Amino acid sequence: MSLMEPVAPWLRDLNRFFTTQGGAVAAPFMPAADVIVSDESVRIEMDVPGLRAENLEIELENDLLTVRGERPFPYAGQEYERTWRHIERAFGRFERSIRVPRGLDPDSVEAGLTDGVLSVRIPKPVSPQPHRVQIKGGGEETRQVGPGEARQAESAEAGQMEGAAASQTDSGEARQTEGAAS
Questions:
Q1: Higher-scoring residue by pLDDT: 158, 17
Q2: What would the pLDDT profile of 14-42 be if each residue is shown by its tens digit?
Q3: Whole-model pTM?
Q4: Whose CA is closest to 58, among 113, 123, 126, 103?
Q5: Which residues contact 102 (CB under 8 A, 6 or more apart)?
Q6: Quick check: helix, strand or coil at residue 69?
Q7: Burial of 117: CB neighbours in 10 Å, binned 0-12, 13-18, 19+
Q8: CATH of region 28-123
């Protein structure tokens, strides 16, 4: 046997036997996950075999999606106390945190569990788009103003207000003049 050959299978099994206390202790459970980011949403697919929805907890805080749960050890109890076993499946509590894009709405998270696969979908927020604003006047006709027209309308209204203020000032000065002449 040369140094480049893989470890003999029986040696690997023997090593596993001693490192897992006779094969009786299962490794901790950590579910595998896929993260798919598209223009519309972020999707996470996570393998959680044997778990029900009530065994899972999902939380989105800032840019961190956390999935917590527990896959209970099924061989606890007196009936398994003296039984030889070799456990390869993983069990126990787990917490898996996955970074997602910032700005996702925690209230829009959708989750489903089908055939041992947890599917989480978080829609991306719609970027702000300009929209038309309806302006209502007292007795005047209603008109809609778009983003480009808003500045024009504001400057036109400002000009009308300045003109009205100027006419009030002119008539106010005329009254003062008349009052002084009397």
A1: 17
A2: 665 565 544 455 568 899 999 999 999 99
A3: 0.56
A4: 113
A5: 62, 63
A6: strand
A7: middle
A8: 2.60.40.790
137, HSE (Cβ side, Cα atoms, 13 Å): 8
**Residue ranges per domain, the chain?**
28-123, 133-181
**Amino acid type, 83:** T
What is residue 96's three-state secondary structure? strand
Written as six digits, the tokens of 107 are: 């209230």
Tokens of 143: 């008109």
The residue among 131 and 168 whose pLDDT is bigger is 131
Distance between CA atoms of 91 and 101, rounded to whole angstroms?
Answer: 30
3-state DSSP percent of the chain in helix, strand and coil, to 5: 30, 30, 40
- With beta carbons less than 8 A apart as the criterion, state whether 108 and 123 touch: yes
Contacts of 52 (CB under 8 A, 6+ apart): 113
